[in-house]
Write a structure and sequence with these properties.
The chain is α+β, with helices and mostly antiparallel strands. Helices cover about 40% and strands about 20% of the residues. Strands 10, 11, 12, 13, 14, 15 and 18 form a 7-stranded mixed β-sheet that branches. α23 runs antiparallel to α24. About 40% of the residues are buried. The mean pLDDT is about 95. It binds one RNA strand through α7, α10, β19, β20 and α16.
RNA sequence: GCGACUGUGGCGAAACUGGUAUACGCACGAGACUUAAAAUCUUGCGCCGUCAGGCAUGCGGGUUCGAGUCCCGCCAGUCGCACCA
């Protein structure tokens, strides 16, 4: 028998056993409740990083725990395999993105296997494979027919030197990352998905997601940004035409002193035609990237266009300004400015000497003039003709009605959410299944011609996408008229693949349809685990796709993820691990030195799952030390295993000893707490509990209580089974505790063992700790109070004072309030 | 700039509904075993104070018999902001 803990050998043997027995293979089974446990699939960047290890360890703990609780568990894994890094690597190493990606997948799969996750590998998918993305293309063609996919222009980052579109992360301080050239905004045609058509449902259904963190739901609500207000039409004072603005404060309409438009607004370019200074200013506004964080933090600037619009109620001529803080993508790209009641407008008006008209005042009196800041609260209207004297809320509604009667506006609901631009001008992505025909326009690729396969054997030269230069790819014939036509050469945003993979895991081998009935068995995902950085975009898009798939009749449920756990980042020296900072820890080296169980235990123990985790090499040592102690005690107990009597009678006989009884109570109290923590997903304290259990069991062992020791150890191994599955399984087998630990029943605390005759109370005088009191568990409030008043240290602190009140919290404390 | 979150010993953290602040670890000190070291085991460990006791959960207020926990206002850090995934 081997006595020292040798995790690598042990773990390999155990993993081979799982593979032989197909232990994690999941099949539909209506006799048990199902539990679909999903961790966000990785981008195959080359090697696993600690964030992956943490993510998948948390998911694995949940999967294994639920299996022991009697659930039919599915835990799949796959690869988010399209994306920009493969193109960058291809240019750098002169390889094809496909080859690089596949070799990364092979390596990372082997890494995942050494970590011992309970994954059903038979369901593995890679999104860059045609048998996956063909169904995404199929859905897009359906959505095109339904009008949920459409084409319009969108703004992108343009690098004028490299003549290419840049991702936001490739724009650094307003310059292209390779060329260093100043980036410009440019309008190009793109395909969009009409997510705004689902805005109300995406908002409303957040309320049914009880298993989601409140902060994620709050972020999604704010992102969707539903606001009720009014649209107001301003006719041009010079020439024909009008512009429309959206406002949530129609009550301040009489205070509008100018209108601001985005640099891309048609009126701006029209006015710039004969004004070189204005044209130059518009060019300046177009400099820099499209990222909202950059736009929002830049200095507020504007310039008068010389044009005016007519105020719909007063008929006044208001000047139109171009302002760099107005976004073309929100609303109509124009805002009415009310400096007296909007802080941003106030700042702008002050900067450029524009008038400030107060039209709302607090109910309790007029504002002091001149204003030093905008008055943004609600109030009572003034200087607003017939509306003067009305409260804001009432005036707002009335104003919209009056505008509507005049044909100058209407009540409107506006969303901050914009339609989802899915076109990318890149190679390594899913081809958009559309054919452009001079005769028939844009024609979806017919179902029988799908998939549109992305050629994998290409040369990346760093300038443009290979399929845009590949006539064999883009030359085709029109499916409608048979005439010569061209394929779309843009590919899709990789968020599209990750928006439905969770459903495909249910039936990855289905070649005749996107999904089949197995999806309705497994879905919705019972537990989704992934990084908080995905709180908005990925999760919103996946929710959207779930509803799209529902509405084409593929699935029946409304929401994809019933519960969500957003795990925190892995830090070292207080900073995110990254190559550039040189503070990475390689999971591979860690596993080779200490084994997967130590890595898993450390990660679970060190921080609660939702918080960031600070890496500590000595913490890893501590985890390893603990597992060695478990192993050592397990070895000792193995020898006595066969002869140990663990019957209720044997346990009762041992408990005649007060020390043993107290220790056994501690075991069950710790277990009760661990179960509570497991249920609320606070796994770090479950790991703590396993350490406390070992401490207590060692004392039981020293005390010679063989039955209680073995009972405690069998509890410990089951509590550890989800966290350190290899160690738990090996010792469970050696101690002959019956079957395999992953199929053992999850332990519950013995209520009998938890009962106690005496309880300890805390004594306080005026809220300050002054002593302790041991009383019978059955003692009454009066008895407790009487005892408390006789306690020497309490008497000392009551000297010269009169007790005014006595607070007794049963089982906890007595507080004597005196003065 | 906007939205969301976090802040407790030297360090990671615990404290369920407001009820003994610092569980469980790490680091460190002392001791045992050893020729020695490693490993292992035992033990101590918030700060100030000789004791009595006092002070401590980012900072400033408030509610309460009692606040790490609830409320208000600050400060610092982290995540997201639509073409990184």
């Amino acid at each position: 028998m081997e006595h020292s803990y040798q995790p690598r050998l042990l773990e390999q043997a155990i993993q081979q056993g799982w593979e032989r027995q197909q232990t994690w293979r999941a099949t539909e089974d209506t006799s048990r409740p199902k539990y679909y446990c999903l961790s966000m699939f990785p981008y195959p960047s080359g090697r696993l990083h600690m964030g992956h290890v943490r993510n998948y360890t948390i998911g694995d703990v949940l999967a294994r725990y639920h299996r022991m609780k009697g659930f039919n568990v599915l835990q799949p894994m796959g690869w988010d395999a399209f994306g920009l890094p493969a193109e960058n690597a291809a240019v750098k190493n002169a390889t094809a993105p496909a080859a690089w990606t596949y070799s990364n997948i092979d390596y990372m799969r082997s890494q995942l296997r050494t970590l011992g996750f309970a994954i059903d590998w038979s369901r593995e998918i890679a999104t860059c494979k045609p048998d996956y993305y063909r169904w995404e293309q199929w859905l897009i063609t359906r959505l095109l027919e339904k009008g949920l996919v459409y084409r319009k222009t969108g703004t992108v980052n343009w690098d004028p030197v490299d003549q290419t579109v840049l991702a936001n992360e490739q724009v650094i301080d307003g310059r292209g990352w390779r060329s260093g050239a100043l980036v410009e905004k440019r309008e190009i045609p793109m395909y969009y998905m009409r997510i705004t058509a689902y805005a109300d449902e995406l908002l409303a259904d957040l309320d049914q997601l009880e298993g989601w963190p409140e902060q994620v739901k709050a972020m999604q609500r704010n992102w969707i940004g539903r606001s009720e207000g009014a649209e107001v039409r301003f006719d041009y004072a010079e020439g024909e035409g009008h512009l429309t603005v959206f406002t949530t404060r129609a009550d301040t309409l009489y205070g509008a002193t100018y209108v601001a438009v985005a640099a891309e607004h048609p009126l701006a370019s029209e006015a710039a035609a004969d004004q070189p200074a204005l044209a130059a200013f518009i060019e300046e506004c177009k400099r820099g990237g499209v990222a909202e964080a950059d736009v929002a933090t830049q200095e507020k600037k504007g310039m008068a266009t010389g044009r005016h619009v007519i105020h719909p109620l007063t008929g006044a001529r208001l000047p139109v300004w171009v302002a760099n803080y107005v976004l073309m993508s929100y609303g109509e790209g124009a805002v009415m400015a009310v400096p007296a009641h909007d802080q941003r407008d106030f700042d702008f008006a002050t900067q450029y000497g524009l008038p400030i008209h107060v039209v709302v005042q607090p109910a309790d009196g007029p504002l002091e003039l001149p204003l030093t800041e905008a008055y943004t609260a609600q109030g009572v209207l003034v200087n607003s003709e017939d509306f003067s004297g009305r409260p804001s809320e009432e005036a707002r509604v009335k104003m919209a009605t009056v505008l509507q009667a005049l044909g100058s506006g209407a009540p409107r609901i506006q969303y901050r959410l914009r339609d989802w631009g899915i076109s990318r001008q890149r190679y390594w992505g899913c081809p958009i299944p559309i054919i452009h025909c001079a005769q028939c326009g844009e024609v979806p690729v017919p179902e029988q011609d799908l998939p549109v396969v992305l050629p994998e054997d290409v040369v990346m030269d760093g300038v443009g996408s290979p399929i845009k230069k590949d006539a064999a790819f883009y030359t085709t014939t029109c499916p409608t008229c048979g005439g010569p036509a061209q394929r779309e050469t843009d590919t899709m945003d990789t968020f599209v693949e990750s928006s439905w993979y969770f459903a495909r895991y249910a039936c990855p081998d289905q070649t005749g349809a996107m999904l089949d009935q197995r999806a309705n068995y497994w879905l919705p995902v019972d537990q989704y685990v992934g990084g908080i950085e995905h709180a908005i975009l990925h999760l919103l898009y996946a929710r959207f796709f779930n509803k799209l798939m529902r509405d084409v009749g593929l699935i029946t449920h409304d929401e994809p993820f019933s519960r969500l756990l957003t795990q925190g980042m892995v830090l070292k020296d207080g900073a995110k691990m990254s190559k550039s900072k040189g503070n990475t820890v390689d999971p591979q080296a860690l596993i080779e030195e200490f084994g997967a169980d130590t890595a898993r235990f450390f990660i679970i123990f060190t921080s609660p799952p939702e918080q960031s985790l600070e890496w500590s090499d000595s913490g890893v040592q501590g985890a390893f030390r603990f597992l060695k102690r478990v192993w050592a005690l397990g070895q000792t107990l193995t020898d006595a295993a066969a002869t140990t009597d663990t019957s209720t009678a044997a346990l009762a006989a041992e408990a005649a000893d007060a020390t043993v009884r107290d220790l056994r109570r501690e075991v069950h109290a710790t277990l009760r707490q661990a179960n509570y923590d497991m249920a609320r997903q606070q796994f770090n304290t479950v790991a703590s509990a396993s350490m406390k259990l070992l401490n207590t069991i060692e004392k039981l062992h020293t005390a010679g209580a063989a039955a209680a020791t073995r009972e405690g150890f069998s509890i410990l191994l089951r509590v550890l089974a989800p966290i350190t599955p290899h160690l738990a399984e090996a010792l469970w087998g050696r101690l002959a505790l019956g079957g395999a630990v992953y199929d053992a029943t999850w332990p519950t605390a013995d209520e009998q063992a938890l009962t106690r005759d005496q309880v300890e109370l805390v004594l306080q005088v005026n809220g300050k700790l002054r002593g302790n009191l041991e009383v019978e568990a059955t003692a009454s409030r009066e008895e407790i109070e009487a005892l408390a008043r006789t306690h020497p240290n309490v008497l000392k602190h009551l000297e010269g004072l009169t007790v005014r009140k006595v607070v007794v919290v049963p089982g906890r404390l007595v507080n004597l309030v005196a003065n």
